[in-house]
Amino acid sequence: MKLAFMTLIGILVATTGCESDPTKGWAVGTTYDTSIKTVAIPVVQNDTFDREVGYLLTNALIREVESRTPWKVTSENVADTVLDVTVTKVTMRALSQSRLTGLDQEMALQLTVDWNWERIDDSSTIAGWDGMGTSGLFLPSNPLGEPVELGRLESVELMARAIVDRMSESW
Known about the structure:
With 171 residues, the protein is α/β, with parallel strands linked by helices. It folds into 2 domains: 1-30; 32-169, Double Stranded RNA Binding Domain. It is 32% helix and 35% strand. The strands form 2 sheets. Strands 3, 4, 5, 6, 7 and 8 form a 6-stranded mixed sheet that branches. It has a two-stranded parallel sheet with strand order 1-2. The longest helix is centred in the last third of the chain and has 22 residues, at 148-169.
């Protein structure tokens, strides 16, 4: 009896608490804008001296959009929207130093970008962010001796994930 009552309450809450439109309350379904089918991602513009970061971020963005969203990445002449990204700053910051040698033990590669996502048909902005930043940690000192590329790769992956997260909630 108690189980049947709880099941009935659960069904009532589930059917009356969910909306088909996420702007009106809890919704069952996708959180992505279904009117958008394709996204163009041109090569990320890089205004820094770190030559690789633009290409790494372009590839990471394509992977994130293709794997986590219902949208497909295509060329600009057939896409519904375009995602323009510019790397504005790449810096390294020491987080800790060895007491014995004074050498940096932990370093953070900080990446800052400006991005804008807009519809191609009417040039209206869907989402954007100036000065979005991420940091990738690496340990350059012995015994690990990790290369700076590990920090760069982590920072780029975090940035791509953060941009796609914002794209999914922007509508």
